[in-house]
Amino acid sequence: MAPHHPTPSPDEPDASGASPLVDFAVDLTSQEVLRRAQVMEALGPDWDPVEVLLGEEAAYDLLYSGLDPQQQRLYDELVAAGVLPARGDGRAAA
To answer: Cβ contacts of residue 75 below 8 Å, gap of 6+?
Structure first.
């Protein structure tokens, strides 16, 4: 069965006389390079990605520390389900 509304050929005008489809491409390489340069400038020369990651790990340790038994059970279930990443010995920090 033929489609009810066939796709027009890119080389021929459609029944309404509209122009044929034209390839349209935009190269965003220069804009991406500029955006990345601006991000790095905004971060500044003192930005240390290793220090940032270590700070995030410390924040997660603090977030999951001191859990009561019910919270610890829920934490363990979320780790087992793959919702949260396993940390250290598999238990939240004390």
So the answer is: 64, 67, 84, 92
